[in-house]
Design a protein that fits this description.
The chain is of the alpha+beta class. It is built from 8 helices and 23 strands. This is DUF4974 domain-containing protein.
Length: 373
């Protein structure tokens, strides 16, 4: 590299100097030829010397070759940086990209809503909605109402089911897979799955009973994780305001892998029935055996708790009944064991908890305050 630089420096400094000398000699010859014969020889000599001195050309460096060279190097560095950045980016499925658009909702946020691919919104006033797709996905039934949807052959049509706090919905997808969507959740899915894969995106909590199709693997994207299955039953809790994502496998087998974020360099984890995986925001994963009913009974309107932290139970109740609950530090650390029937009122459930623990509760400014006695 040094030899190349020296060569270019020589070329730039030497050539302009020779050219300038040649130009000066020619100009002097012209002046002498036109000469002023009236001047004495001494004055002529002084004049020629003055002209010659004035005609001396200061070598001028041609900077543009160096500028082009620097620009080429800079372009190479930028191109390499762009390639490196793009190579580090995860391949985001079209479904995930669509869900990231965060389609705005209008009207009463306390009601369950179905948003079709053309942004048509269907309000569902039943707080225990039942939705079923028929045929090829162009027709769906919401409770007793039949709705038609226009599909496109060249690209997927994504629908969104939004279930606010205080509501639950049961959805049967086009392939026959059943999904129980818990309060405060959103599911984005295609009206019709593709020929070689089935993908949905979850925010919140849902229980999946997946229809087995070996030729079309089923995947759930939740937080930064991809849960890949063939045919199985499992529960995912991935609320944005929770510190972790939890997957509990009831039957079958699932594979867990980060599809974006800090955990993409980690190997996939195979989860066995009766086990739970807890994934932190840093993609750290803990796997252990659990009581499945404690994490899946909500879909049947129950909480089946076994030494469950009271703070966790109260958070579930807050979402289920859409009622803010505040706790003090001591009551939040207590645990509760037993079955709670969520088909009654929230006060009925809190009465049972208070009677079984050292806690008490009161309602103040549309909030429930649960504290120790």
């Amino acid at each position: 590299m040094d030899n190349g630089n020296n060569y270019h420096d020589h070329e730039e400094d030497g050539m302009p100097e020779a050219s300038g000398a040649l130009q000066r000699d020619r100009m002097l010859a012209i002046v002498r030829a036109s000469g002023n014969e009236q001047l004495p020889d001494g004055e002529k000599a002084a004049l020629w010397q003055k002209i010659a001195t004035g005609m001396t050309v200061v070598p001028t460096r041609r900077w543009w070759p160096q500028l082009l060279k620097a620009a080429a190097i800079l372009l190479l560095v930028i191109s390499a940086g762009i390639w490196w950045y793009q190579s580090r980016q995860e391949s985001i499925p079209a479904l995930v990209a669509f869900a990231a658009q965060k389609q705005p909702l209008s009207g009463d946020s306390a009601l369950t809503r179905m948003i079709l691919g053309n942004n048509r919104q269907l309000v569902i006033r039943n707080n225990r909605a039942s939705i079923t797709y028929h045929g090829s996905g162009g027709s769906l039934q919401i409770d007793s109402q039949r709705v038609s949807q226009q599909l496109k052959e060249d690209k997927p049509v994504f629908n969104t089911l939004v279930v606010p706090y205080g509501n639950i919905a049961v959805l049967q997808l086009e392939d026959g897979t059943n999904v129980w969507l818990n309060a405060g959740s959103r599911l984005v899915y295609p009206a019709v799955f593709s020929k070689n894969k089935r993908e949905v995106l979850l925010e919140g909590e849902a229980y999946f009973d997946v229809q087995q199709e070996a030729a079309r693997p089923f995947s759930v994207y939740a937080a930064d994780m991809q849960v890949a299955v063939l045919g199985t039953a499992f529960n995912i809790s991935a609320y944005k305001d929770d510190n972790s994502t939890q997957i509990v496998l009831a039957s079958g087998s699932v594979q867990l892998k980060a599809f974006r974020g800090t955990g993409t360099d980690k190997a996939p984890v195979q989860l066995q029935p009766g086990h739970r995986a807890v994934i932190s925001a840093q993609a750290d994963m803990e796997v252990g055996a659990v009581n499945i009913a404690a994490f899946t009974s909500w879909k049947d309107g129950m909480i089946d708790a076994s030494h469950m932290p009271l703070s966790e139970i109260l958070k579930k109740l807050s979402r289920y009944y859409n009622q803010p609950i505040l706790t003090d530090a001591r009551s939040g650390r207590e645990t509760f064991s037993g079955k709670l029937n969520l088909k009654g009122t929230m006060n009925d459930v809190l009465d049972i908890i208070a009677a079984s623990t050292s806690g008490k509760y009161e309602e103040r400014e549309n909030k429930i305050i649960f504290r120790t006695r």
